[in-house]
Amino acid sequence: MTYGAEVDPCDKCEELLQPYLDRELSETERAEAQSHLDLCAYCRKRYRFEEELRRFVRQAAVEEMTPELKQKLAELRTSLF
Amino acid sequence: MGETTPEADPRKLAEEARDRVHFEEEALDLADQVYRVARRLVSTREEAEDLMQETYSRAFRAWRSYQPGTNLRAWLLRILTNLNIDRGRKLQRSPDLQPLEEGDYYLYNRLEEAGREPNVEQERVDERLSQDDVVAALSAVPHDFRDVVVLVDIGDFSYADAAQILEIPIGTVMSRLHRGRRILKRELADEAVGSA
């Protein structure tokens, strides 16, 4: 991702937030985001928050299936004989 | 010709039966993980349960089309998302493509503005948001975006896997994910601090 010199580095960092946390950035882009984060407490706080938010969303969204459903799925197996 | 056909060859039949049993066991072992994704793709537990049963019934019938060694969880979810789209999504309006004002820092900034600046040294999102907030916010994300958010953020699939499951280009996965997460954060902000 290339940005013009006039772009605010924090805006640029905000754009890189998602692919950074998804580990989908190239090494160059990652290093670029990292060097900004090392210097910028504003972005660093927001990155940490996002990381924590994702963990929370993942945990909060979990609903386990019931033993009854498990049983029903097992009963769908093809009978061998 | 006197030759035994493969269908009638007892050794082949036994091999096939063994492969099928192995496939079914592996698929059932993944059911918990598949359900967690299914549950958030639809609104109610009943819908998720129906979808799971349809998916497994179809998967057990079509087991020969699964290529061993490839990602079985993704294969099952491909069946599931296709069934889900076939079931009730035809009537849904096209995704809203209006530009979103909110950026990726939106939720943090809203909390900060509301005087609830998260303390990053001891970050605890759960002090500001509840499980119900997350469930409600996820349900408010339009389907096309939610599918991608659920697969990547809850199902832990890569962009490439999500693209394969939903049969859409990887660029579309990225843009829907980007937008879906922003909508999710806007909804969470509304839950946490009220509508702007």
Topology of helices and strands:
The complex is a heterodimer of chains A (81) and B (196).
Chain A (H helix, E strand, L loop, with lengths): L8 H13 L5 H13 L1 H20 L6 H9 L6
Helix pairs in contact in A: 1-2, 1-3, 2-3
Chain B lengths: L9 H20 L1 H11 L3 H17 L10 H17 L17 H8 L17 H9 L3 H12 L4 H8 L3 H24 L3
Give a brief rundown of this model:
The complex is a heterodimer of chains A (81) and B (196). By secondary structure, chain A is mostly helical.
What this model shows, in words?
- Chain A is mainly alpha-helical.
- Chain A has a single domain (9-75), classed as Arc Repressor Mutant, subunit A (Orthogonal Bundle), CATH 1.10.10.
- In chain A, 68% of the residues lie in helices and 0% in strands.
- Chain A has helices at 9-21, 27-39, 41-60, 67-75.
- The longest helix of chain A has 20 residues, at 41-60.
- The radius of gyration of chain A is 21 Å and the shape is elongated.
- The termini of chain A are far apart.
- Chain B has 196 residues and is mostly helical.
- Chain B folds into 2 domains: 10-88, RNA polymerase sigma factor, region 2, helix turn helix motif (Rna Polymerase Sigma Factor, Chain: A, Orthogonal Bundle), CATH 1.10.1740; 106-193, Winged helix-like DNA-binding domain superfamily/Winged helix DNA-binding domain (Arc Repressor Mutant, subunit A, Orthogonal Bundle), CATH 1.10.10.
- Helices cover 64% and strands 0% of the residues of chain B.
- Chain B contains 9 helices and no strands.
- The radius of gyration of chain B is 21 Å and the shape is elongated.
- The mean pLDDT of chain B is 85.
- Classes of the chains: A mainly alpha (81), B mainly alpha (196).
- At the A-B interface, helix 1, helix 3 and helix 4 of A face helix 1, helix 2, helix 3, helix 6 and helix 7 of B.
